[in-house]
Specification:
alpha/beta; about 625 residues; 26 strands; six-stranded mixed beta sheet
């Protein structure tokens, strides 16, 4: 037991070490839409269920979900991706804002945001509608804007990290966000990134990138090996595994790449192996899985035993007793050679993953089988945790363990998987950061609180304002600020300070009420009141890692920015919710009160007590 506890603490230390790690994510961003319905009858027109929509959820998908997972796990995530100027794009921006992702997406008018819409009844996915055509390539101007965004985001992250080279995550799902010029730029700029992770449906498109880690699925790894060509035999556990690709594809269909016992070898049941180099057999169920867009499509066949695609079919049934994990382990060295990666992690969905590094020692991790609707995006959580751990210089076994844990704990319910740092620490039996200090504190007590958090390696976010009439814009702003670190301190102007800044008729609410409301928000850790017009003295005492202000202006225009940067922190500005401001709310209240003349008779009627209440009172 003591050894297990020590191991959990060691893993938790790695989770703590990647806090604030700068990560740039680029690739195919999409919106996941979940529609939950009830059904209790079939329609007259066809044997189809009649659905009554009950609930709708939108979530970041693809590269956007990888960015969300990096942010919720504690990294500093910046997303660069083309996003359409449409409703789906607006929803995607909101998802990124809520997660604290630095949204550096590039608006692409005329090119829709990819969307995956799932309709469910009783937690069973009935259908999925995909929109967004992968053939809608970026025009030259779009490519130029994307490259400019990549260059600026790279420098922004480097500056925010004090000159440290950021980590790069490439998510290429074949939806057109990474055309050849963008791929070439990333290969050329490889030296600007310390750690590079690659998740691509077609790994052959990324020759020359030399990634730190690649995370192909079994089908993606198989396709890469098939394209490499040749026949290779590897002894594994007494069984000769055979992988062969014919030189030419027959005219009537794809050639067959067969995985199983090598010709002349022995099956697990000691019977002779039959050569199976043949076109797909008639009657075999057709592809029912999710094909990769583009030229080389790969999908699981309906029997669940084969992977088929243009020019290649992998029959995993041949050679009974030989499973995907055994095959993947036998080909890790080749996959590393073909990708140029230091680490290859072949993900096997419900079977976990097989990971290999330079030492040639394969490592196996396992997952818990769950319904498919629970596992959407689990690979993004795996990729995010693996990348953060390797970027934090964690040993490969530790990185693989944390990645599998992050993926596993996200699959408890239907929806797009997101792993939070708090969930990961809880799974490691480590307490989340808590404090015995009250939410409303004085300046002297604040010094002690910050010192405790610094000693524990926590990051501090600081913001300030009047917060006179608390509204939705304030709450969203504070939630975004909290996502940027481990501790959010809100400094509130005193009543005298607000009067000097806003005029004699403000504040509407006294500082006692304003502070209490802020302290009641889950995203706010501590509230402190200051008398001055500027929070300069508090900033010097707290020395925040991140100083946040609201507004649509650049951080350079924030008056406190030079001081924060001199103290080693960074400055972020977060946009307000449109038409949500204290002044606008107060003005609307005043205009309504002026337009409405009170009706004395109506007032008297309203004040007349309910007769039933009067009767009950007399009876009592």
């Amino acid at each position: 037991m003591a050894g297990a506890a020590a191991e959990q603490r060691r893993l938790a230390t790695v989770v703590e070490s990647w806090l604030g790690r700068p990560v740039l994510i680029v690739g195919d961003a999409m919106l996941d839409e979940w529609r939950f319905a009830d059904s209790d009858r079939l329609c007259r027109e066809a044997p189809a269920p009649v659905l009554t929509l009950r609930r709708r959820i939108s979530a970041a998908g693809g590269a956007a979900n990888t960015a969300v997972n990096v942010a919720t796990l504690g990294g500093r995530a910046v997303l660069v991706a083309p996003v359409g100027a449409d409703v789906a794009g607006d929803e995607l921006h909101d998802c990124l804002d809520r997660a604290g992702v630095w949204d550096r997406t590039v608006n692409q008018p005329g090119r829709p945001t990819p969307v995956k819409r799932r309709m469910l009844a009783g937690n069973q996915i009935l259908l999925r509608e995909d929109s967004g055509d992968p053939d809608d390539a970026l025009d030259p101007e779009g490519v130029t804007r994307l490259l400019t965004a990549l260059d600026c985001a790279t420098e922004e992250l480097r500056a925010a990290a004090g000159g440290e080279a950021p980590t790069l995550v490439v998510c290429d799902y074949g939806l057109g966000a990474l055309p050849a010029p963008v791929r070439a730029w990333l290969v050329e700029q490889r030296e600007r990134y310390a750690t590079v992770a690659l998740d691509a449906h077609d790994l052959a498109d990324w020759r020359g990138l030399a990634p730190t880690v690649v995370t192909p699925s079994f089908a993606e790894a198989t396709r890469l090996l098939a394209r490499a060509g040749g026949t290779t035999t590897r002894p594994t556990a007494g069984t000769e595994l055979h992988l062969e690709h014919l030189d030419g594809d027959p005219a009537d269909g794809p050639s067959e790449l067969t995985v199983g016992a090598a010709p002349g070898g022995v099956r697990a049941d000691d019977s002779a192996a039959e050569p199976t180099l043949e076109p797909p057999r008639a009657g075999r169920p057709g592809p029912v899985g999710e094909p990769t867009p583009g030229e080389s499509r790969v999908a699981l066949t309906g029997d669940g035993l084969s992977v088929t695609g243009t020019g290649v079919t992998v029959n995993t049934q041949a050679g009974e007793g030989v499973d995907r994990a055994v095959l993947a382990e036998s080909r890790l060295a080749e996959l590393r050679a073909h990708t140029g990666a230091d680490v290859v992690a072949v993900t096997l969905d419900t079977d976990g993953a097989v990971v290999g590094g330079a030492d040639g020692e394969p490592r196996r991790s396992h997952s818990i089988p769950v319904p498919a609707s629970h596992a959407v995006g689990a690979g993004d959580a795996y990729l995010a945790a693996m990348t953060l751990a390797l970027a934090a210089d964690a040993p490969l076994p530790t990185a693989a363990q944390l990645a599998q844990l992050a993926a596993t704990i996200t699959v408890s319910d239907t929806g797009t998987c997101v792993c939070r740092r708090e969930d990961l620490l809880t799974a490691l039996n480590q307490p989340n950061e808590t404090t015995s200090h009250p939410a409303l504190v004085g300046g002297d007590e604040l010094d002690a609180i910050v010192a405790e958090y610094r000693e524990a390696g926590r990051s501090v976010v600081f913001t300030n304002g009047c917060f006179d009439v608390l509204h939705r814009g304030h709450v969203r702003y504070l939630e975004q600020a909290r996502a940027l670190g481990d501790l959010l301190i809100v400094a509130v102007n005193s009543d005298d300070s607000v009067r000097r800044l806003k005029g004699p008729d403000r504040p509407v609410n006294p500082v006692e009420d304003r502070g209490a409301l802020l302290a009641a928000l889950a995203c706010v850790d501590h509230v402190v009141v200051f008398e001055e017009d500027s929070p300069t003295a508090l900033i010097e005492a707290v020395r925040p890692d991140t100083y946040v202000k609201g507004g649509d202006y650049p951080p350079e225009l924030v008056p406190e920015a030079p001081l924060v940067r001199r103290l080693g922190g960074q400055v972020r500005t977060l946009g307000y919710v449109p038409d949500r401001s204290t002044s606008a709310i107060i003005e609307r209240i005043r205009s309504h009160s002026q337009d409405r003349e009170p009706d004395p008779s109506a007032y008297a009627k309203d004040r007349e007590p309910d007769p039933s209440l009067r009767t009950r009172t007399q009876a009592s």
